[in-house]
UniProtKB/TrEMBL annotation:
GO CC term, one of those recorded: cytoplasm
E.C. number(s) listed in UniProt: 2.7.1.12
Native source organism of the sequence: Aquilegia coerulea (Rocky mountain columbine)
Annotated protein name in UniProt: Gluconokinase
Keyword Aminoacyl-tRNA synthetase appears in the UniProt entry: no
Domain of life: Eukaryota
Gene3D superfamilies named in the record: P-loop containing nucleotide triphosphate hydrolases
Length: 204
């Protein structure tokens, strides 16, 4: 359950994002297909901003990870409870005035909607709320090469062969106001771009 502590609670010294105003807690979701660089960029961005990084992969039930490691794409039935858990967690951060970065595939609008409702004041269809999305975009060849290389270097449950299923599912609408970022750049350049897009524009 989520507490309803007000953001203006002067007794709270739990703010994790040192350069945030307490009224400005944001959730930045770094999204994209497997291998686009969500964990790499998300964790670096969180360090730069001095706030927490959550990796959606850490919240998958064992059964989901086992399915993916066996080369079977997740279904809606697998994803929805997982996204709802993430949404509860994001809401907890928002009501406690904590800015947080989440790395999560969020491949479809209906999945992103579950994350957006973490913002207690979100109204369906209004996309300027506290939950913002940054999509890491790169050509399929670049991502496939990264996944192959990762598989050689580390033991990751997500096999490169599931990339096509992720691309098949991936769907974005202009009206959603998602920030599209060139994910072929170096991780540091991507972090700088995201920071400029999301934080400097709003004077933070
Ligand atoms: N900008 C980049 N340039 C070059 N290599 C990168 C870049 N970003 C990530 N990588 C590398 O690509 C691989 C995939 O990156 P990462 O694990 O961050 O992606 P991901 O989107 O979190 O993947 P998944 O969804 O499967 O967990 C890693 O080996 C990482 O080191
Ligand atoms: O929605 C999904 O299919 C999952 O989130 C996957 O994207 C994996 O969790 C991730 O890519 C593996 O690291």
């Amino acid at each position: 359950m989520v507490s309803s502590q007000a953001c203006s609670d002067s007794n709270s010294n739990n703010y994790q994002c040192q350069d945030d105003d307490d009224d400005d807690a944001l959730v930045i979701v770094i999204m994209g297909v497997s291998g686009s660089g969500k964990s790499t960029v998300g964790s670096m961005l969180a360090k730069t901003k001095g706030c927490s990084y959550l990796d959606a992969d850490d919240f998958h039930p064992h059964a989901n990870k086992e399915k993916m490691s066996n080369g079977i794409p997740l279904s809606d039935e697998d994803r929805i409870p997982w996204l709802e858990t993430l949404s509860d967690l994001l809401r907890e951060n928002i009501v406690n005035c904590k800015t947080v970065i989440l790395g999560c595939s969020a491949l479809q609008k209906k999945y992103r909607e579950i994350l957006r409702v973490a913002d207690p004041s979100y109204k369906s269809g209004s996309y300027g709320g506290r939950v913002r999305f940054v999509c890491l975009e790169a050509p399929v060849e670049v991502i496939a090469a990264r996944l192959e290389k990762r598989a050689e270097e580390v033991n990751h449950f997500m096999p490169a062969k599931l990339l096509q299923s992720q691309l098949d599912l991936f769907q974005i609408e202009n009206a959603e106001g998602i920030f599209m970022v060139d994910a072929t750049l170096s991780p540091q350049a991507i972090v700088n771009n995201v920071r400029d897009l999301l934080f400097h524009q709003s004077g933070k």
